[in-house]
Amino acid sequence: MTTQTNTSRTPAAKEPTGNNAGLIGIPPHIGRALATGGGILTIISTFLAWTWTDEFPGDLTYYGYPGGLQVLVLIGGLLTTLFALASYGIKGLRWLTPAGADSAIKLAALAAFATAWYTVIAISAQLGGLANLEPGGWVAAVATLAAVLGALSLPFERPAPDPFDPEDTSWEQFRHKARHTGTVIKAAFAAGTTKPARKLPPYAEILIIVAALALGLTVFTYGIGTEYDELFVGFLITTGFGFAAAAKAGLVNRVSALTGKHRNVTMLGAFVAAAAFPFTQSNDQYATIGVYILIFATVALGLNIVVGLAGLLDLGYVAFLGVGAYTAAMVSGSPSSPFDIHLPFWAAALLGAAVAMVFGVLIGAPTLRLRGDYLAIVTLGFGEIFRITVLNADGTSGPDITNGSNGISSIPNLNILGFDFGQEHTIAGFTIARFANYFLLMLLITLVVVVVFRRSGDSRIGRAWVAIREDETAALAMGINGFRVKLIAFALGAALAGLAGSVQAHVTYTVTPEQYQFAHVVPPNSAFLLAAVVLGGMGTISGPLVGAALLYLIPAKLQFLGNYQLLAFGLALVLLMRFRPEGLIPNRRRQLEFHEEAEAPTVLSKAGA
Amino acid sequence: MTTDTTTKDTAPGAHAPGETVLDARGVTMRFGGLTAVRNVDLTVNSGEIVGLIGPNGAGKTTFFNCLTGLYIPTEGEVRYKGKILPSQSFKVTAAGVARTFQNIRLFANMTVLENVLVGRHTRTKEGLWSALLRGPGFKKAEKASEERAMELLEFIGLAAKRDHLARNLPYGEQRKLEIARALASEPGLLLLDEPTAGMNPQETRATEELVFAIRDMGIAVLVIEHDMRFIFNLCDRVAVLVQGEKLVEGDSATVQGDDRVVAAYLGEPYEDAPGQAEVAEVEAAEAQADAAPRKETDR
Questions:
Q1: Across the interface, do B109 and A592 touch by the CB < 8 Å criterion?
Q2: Interface residue of A452, A454, A460, A484 to substitute, partner B, most B CBs within 10 Å
Q3: Torsion of CA A589, A370, A458, A480, to 10 degrees
Q4: Alpha-carbon span A215 to A270, nearest angstrom
Q5: pLDDT in tens, B71-114
Q6: With contact defined as beta carbons under 8 Å apart, do B298 and B233 qualify?
Q7: Which of A185, B232, B237, B293 is the most buried (most CB within 10 A)?
Q8: Residues of B in Cβ contact (< 8 Å) with A478
Q9: Between chain A and chain B, how many beta carbons pairs sit less than 8 Å apart?
């Protein structure tokens, strides 16, 4: 840390236009001071009133008490200030920036700036004019702008200038310049290498993991609980830039090194944090979102075995969720089920998984002889065949099994050992309502799937899957029965989806064929499941969980975009895949595949798999 | 130079020498109208290193693929230790014939150790259930597999790089790793498809030693190679494949002395009354291409 400040100050002072000048021509030491001052002023401004009326949601009219979007700006300002102070080498703050502070300052300042300006513009637009801003709003706008300008003037290693060929056409020259500008901007935000961590006692490391998980839970809970659209947009801006800042500072690397070291503690901690979620909510509405996210995430994790580990592109995966849900619904004692059976939940869940597995084998046996694109197309077809079959098995166009498009409705609530999932319960002073009950049950299923994923992935069979994905011919020549191993992956994935489906049937009261399409506006469906896996990171456990949470939350919270919702969503996906093809939480293997030129960590630790 | 002769003399071999390990009879492979391999017979005995040479496109790799179940030969049969080899490549490996590839086909994004562990697949049994339940048997088997894999890595000298990704290894080490991966399946016969392609002389020399060491483990070796010096140093017997047909088979001296072999590689100048210049050309080429014969005569 200290070295960086030294190098940045001395040469840059002598030669401000030198090879490592900042993006903006302010002398770096002034820039650094500006960033720090701007950060502090931002913090102060959030304690002022930004507008005069509580018509703008969140009530930003109080002095001394930040509300709504102000809290987010406050977080951005805090991050900027902390990183900036750390860049001065202040003792006690250096641990914040193991990979260098400058890029982190830039991103943190951008977080505060974007959120503050978004708020200010939203206030002006909504209330009709800048006159609605109180002085606090002006202060915030100016302070964040100053912080960003200061941060952008911080020096960085500029890439060598790349002269263009004078014979190029002007269009080629333009493209060349644009490309060079791109690399310069990329360099401006590049992080240094994370310095190795100081040796900490194990309890301290575990405490850090717990703190990180608690932070994760807080952020997630806040995101789910955002009550109005502006706050959610602000939340996305702040967390996006804030997370990037933490990553550039090297904090993410640090924490992931620790979680890789204490995997069981992390898993237990994450499980406890997730289980704590319904207790933090007073309103069952958010537990509803939580349980749908969990169903989606669990199925995505099951798909990750098929796609991420074995490399089989399955576009009809949601059919297995449907098989599980229909099976559980038919034996639930629902009046519209053709069978008058009411099995206990454990039997229904096992039956759902088993039937889904049988379907997995039946569909897999003929299709898994195909490779690549052909497999994708055939699974897509089988997924639709399932839906159409269920639609037609209504007694008029086919046998009366599934009740056609009406589906199987009035599925009774679960009752396990006298615990009625439909009722509110009070546990230790917390009220746990219907959806929270199902949330906790679903969490257990998720845990089962996580354990299955981890154990199967790290075994003889898991290595065989990866080998098949890497090079099928070589894998066969090494004695792996490719078809059998792929069929196991397919059937296992199907069984896990069926297990999740057996809970889903009870959560949604009704199962209809429309829930299990290839593409649909509401997740889970095959397209969204695959997107969650790819977006989150193929072959990892946390990737699909994070991907599913984002893919569920973002469309649900961006309802106000109306018809443009899917457009914005698609655009975001395209951009993400362009700039981070390995997903949000990349498997180390994948990261290497996509960024061959990057300084590859030659040693792959267990944590990466 | 001395080592090769001594190892040849002292070849112990686990099996009684002379026992036929691989017996290919009348192997023919047609792709539509094209006959890539025509009626080739080849035997490999235990404790033996057999070479397969021939100009580009002679059908060497096709023949290899017929042996390893990648192709099903149109005619003929391949027996391994008396049993006809099955027609799927994973079953061939399970039966005891392992191979490497002409273009390295490692699992690039797996670690060195994982690559070798994949090679252990046929010799281990743990299925999905034992992986999920993680009983004591599973842990024991995993540990045993890892120990065996580490032995093999020690053997080829890559033990220190066990956690490196295979893609990050230098070329020569990738070749070695591919051999270790094949050895992990505990084969009785190892097929090497151009193991020294792209190697420098030192690496070629090291590969030679490695192949001798593998032979000394009691594993018969069949090797395709273009490097004549390498093949004539290494092999007890050499078969020459030209345009899908076996031209000559015999020890190094026989093959090198055979005019038809030289003709296959360099064209056929002597068919119609070779002129003085052409004879000189052939002799020069012989001297240049094969420095090995002198060793043979020395002995």
A1: yes
A2: A460
A3: -110
A4: 11
A5: 888 988 899 988 888 888 899 999 999 999 988 999 988 889 99
A6: no
A7: B232
A8: 90, 93, 98, 118-119, 121-122, 181-182, 185
A9: 116
